[in-house]
Input
Amino acid sequence: MSDDFEDLLKRWLRDRAGNDRSAIQALAGSVAVLPPRRAGRRTPLAVAASILVMIGLIALVAPRIGQVGSDAEQSPRPEPSAAASPGGPDAFAGDPRLSRCFGTPEEMEFAFEMAHARDYRRYIPRMGISPELDTYAAAFAVVYRDGWAGPAITGTVGAQPRTPMPGRRFVCILVTGADPNLYSDVDITGLTVAVTPSETQAPNLIPMWAVNLAGQLGCDGPVARIGGEYPESFGGPDTLNNSPLDALAVFLGPSNPFASLPTAGYTQLHAEPHWASFGHLVDGQPKAIVLLTDTTEHGPGWQVMGLRACDASEFDPTVPLTFPVMIWTDQSGNRVSTETIRSMPGPGHCGWDSATWLRVEDTLYFRDPQGVMAEWTTTPFALNAQLPRSAIDSGYRSGGASLWIDPGRDAYVVSADRVERWPRSSDPQIGCM
Amino acid sequence: MEAVLESSPSPLAVLVAAAKRGDRDAFRALVEPDLPAALGTARIVTRSEADASDAVQEALLSAWRGLDGLRDPEAFRAWFRRHVVRAALKAAQRRGRVVELDLAAAAPDGELDRALDARTLARAFDRLEARDRLLLTLHHFWDLPIAETAAHLGIPEGTVKSRVHYAMDRLRAAFAAEERR
Output
């Protein structure tokens, strides 16, 4: 059995490895255009990295060997295919996609649509390998005029517009539903729109919008640590269902293990066969994104397979949370991140739900009328306590109450009619397994 | 005669020295014999034609730039493979689990059972982590001895043995699960 399986594996590895002579020859040929070893010029990747830093959200991918590395005399001046070259940007006057790419229409020479982004090398045959375009989503492309030096870059010390190599162009490719990608030094020889789009959609291909959910969020603060990206670190609880919406509803139901998600107010962000995503939007910004697919190994049906979210303090305050976390405010009424302060009922399965847990930074306090947390405290909870002179107003508010902290000791919740003492936990990491 | 042989650099050393001076043809002569295996390995590990080609290009570039760090010319082949391994793993991890289905490859010679096995194995293999895929590729595709696999991956030989064992276990389990689908 073992030998048979290993033999099968070896045969299959050889099959998958293949023997694509043309690809091998192309790779061997690429050695000829490796950059000079002793010239000391910056590497294409280093250039790409620096530009990436400079332009922030723009996904910039360095052209590969054979583009940047080649010297001018090794590269004939590139020209688009005369037979089927695309039109200019005028054909897309007023199209918002033009403005999402960079530069002005005057700086653009060609603009065209691509049925599938993954066909980019059918349109621009000599463009470098760009895995981020490996999606069936439609795309819009702009080729800038020869000599255009790239987007103006400000705010970065030492940053200068990048001067393209002679004859090479900047190209912007905007995949539907994603941020624009700007490519430098693209050889546009053979540029054509006479392209037969690739055929039917492969069911298991992950759409571009399904990766990097965190990057699609519009958080004011850091992205929360709950959930994870597909497929690296997240497999939702058992939500298998007949439709994405049904699976989402189950996910947000009582069995949800995540403390801080809105129970409602989700808008469908994307949908295509086998994939869907929903976002909880606040002022148009996604604050939580849930990704679902029916292509998991868990069986037929839709399942949540990705979740990224902002802090619960950024969700719509009118929508209840899947777990009753209380959001505190500062003195101005601004909601404060739950990473800084949060309160919630104690875990019920340990019999602690009569207590309220208050976590301020790394310190834990209890509102514990029944004394269920007494094992972890040195002073008792008090409904009517005297505010000690050493207590300091933390500035945090909840309803009409203010939170005072006696450093190294207990917390005091001061309302109009009383002062409650919330004892400090001797073990800030206490949990209920 | 023996003394002459000892004092003459080997053809490999001559090529490495020339490549270090910036001779691209010499570098090509050095890497060309290994390109099929390099591309095949990258294709297995990254599961993508585009990424495989990209990874080998990255390996070529990093090896070209790093030639000065190669002390023993006779070790060029293993040294270049390490660049391939690193680039393939990096590409695979960057890509995550984006899979290009290659259904045609599942039936290379028309034998239905074998084709079905291959398809099942492909799915099972794709469920493995990139490091497992790489390890099994080094062990079962390159047929590298444990010691060399350990050197490529920078881990102890004992760790290679146990990881191969567990990777095969995971592959078998994934294969069985795929068969039940």
About this structure: Residues 157-180 of chain B form the longest helix (24 residues). DSSP finds ten helices and no strands in chain B.
